[in-house]
Amino acid sequence: MDLGLADKKALVLASSQGLGLAVATALVGEGAHVVISGRSEDKLAEQAKELNAKGPGKADFVVADLSDRNAAADLYAGAKAKLGRVDILVNNTGGPPPGTTTLPDADTWRSYFDTMILRVIEITNLCLPDMQAKGWGRVLTIASSGVQQPIPNLAMSNTLRSSLVGWSKSLASEVGKDGITSNMQLPGRIHTARLDQLDSGNAERSGRTIDEVRAQNFAAIPVGRYGRTEEFGELAAFLVSERASYVNGSVIRCDGGATQGI
After folding, report:
1. Coiled-coil region(s) at which residues (predicted)?
2. Does 3.40.50.720 match the CATH number of domain 9-190+228-254?
3. CA-to-CA distance for 173 and 249, rounded, in angstroms?
4. Of 181, 63, 78, whose CA–CA distance to 126 is shortest?
5. Is the CB of residue 36 less than 8 Å from the CB of residue 74?
């Protein structure tokens, strides 16, 4: 299937590694011109070089720290300079530290709200005029399966990311007439460095080995394993493609069937 992504211009947030990089890799593989972003210039330069070597699309990068108040404006300006316009925006942010609802203080809640929620809204609002001018655009926001089934000891993530569901759905209703779609993609247990970190922490707290923790996790996933980053990236590529033009306002899980809900 030709996804119709050749020569599309895409900005992918937090994409020097993990899920963001998986999405960028899939888009470049479909012929898109992609700007990846993150805090480490060295890591971004290395990943862009590897993406360009694979092709057939093209990769550039912009250094951005989403905790900076000016990050959205700087990121959009950098992407615009590299791409000329933004057709596709993939919103992605790092997650907050594990913990219960009572663990963080108010300042910590505010800090992560700014980074994970406010910055996403700001950069989307900056990119929308490009999409509206062309009459075509895609906004895909990556969150977590915790917005549908709260994940134990990830209270901040469950809470903050849930606010993006209402925002994304509201956006879909507002911009659908402009040829723009807004959807969310929810990863379950996709095997990334972040998941390794969570498994290690769980093992330490429970006095078990990482293998024992993973065996328990696998048992709770109908397909019996963690997801591969390639699987996540390829689903994202479809959702931002020409072929998904009638998918709007949706929340799509990529979790192997783990979420116990309909």
Report:
1. none
2. yes
3. 7
4. 78
5. no
